[in-house]
């Protein structure tokens, strides 16, 4: 896996992934997200990928999965994350609570590389979920 990050000006950078995608990064939030926001987005994408995949393998009829993520940072430099809360809102038809709970747990404890890496680095990550039934 490879990413190149090129400085544009001031606190604006452009990242280009090995797969050819570009992301604008901006510390002032005028041209793109801040770097630490991208870490949370990466965590959200990683764990959501797991949860949806596990639920689909369990033949659950998922129509939507949204991960709401908020985090606390240290007050001193380096302002690392101290706690991250990931709350899934899983919407579907006839979803079994036990399957959703299992999917969230497996992602948190076994599959999500981003989550495991952050936790091993000392970040407390709390996972929760809710299920919304649709007709």
From TrEMBL:
SUPFAM superfamilies recorded: OsmC-like
Q: What Pfam families would the database entry show?
A: OsmC (PF02566)
What span is annotated as the signal peptide, if there is one?
Answer: none
Looking up InterPro entries in the UniProt record yields: KH_dom-like_a/b (IPR015946), OsmC/Ohr_fam (IPR003718), OsmC/Ohrsf (IPR036102)
In terms of PANTHER family, this protein maps to: PROTEIN YHFA (PTHR34352)
Q: What is this protein called?
A: OsmC family protein
């Amino acid at each position: 896996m490879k990413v190149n990050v090129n400085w544009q000006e001031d606190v604006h950078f452009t990242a280009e992934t090995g797969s050819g995608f570009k992301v604008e990064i901006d510390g002032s939030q005028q041209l793109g997200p801040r770097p630490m926001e991208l870490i949370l987005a990466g965590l959200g994408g990683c764990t959501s990928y797991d949860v949806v995949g596990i639920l689909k393998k369990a033949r659950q009829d998922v129509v939507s999965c949204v991960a709401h993520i908020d985090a606390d940072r240290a007050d001193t430099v380096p302002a690392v994350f101290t706690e991250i809360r990931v709350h899934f809102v899983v919407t579907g038809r006839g979803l079994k609570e036990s399957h959703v709970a299992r999917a969230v747990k497996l992602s948190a404890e076994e599959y999500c590389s981003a989550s495991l890496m952050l936790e091993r680095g000392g970040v407390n990550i709390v996972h929760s979920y809710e299920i919304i039934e649709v007709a």
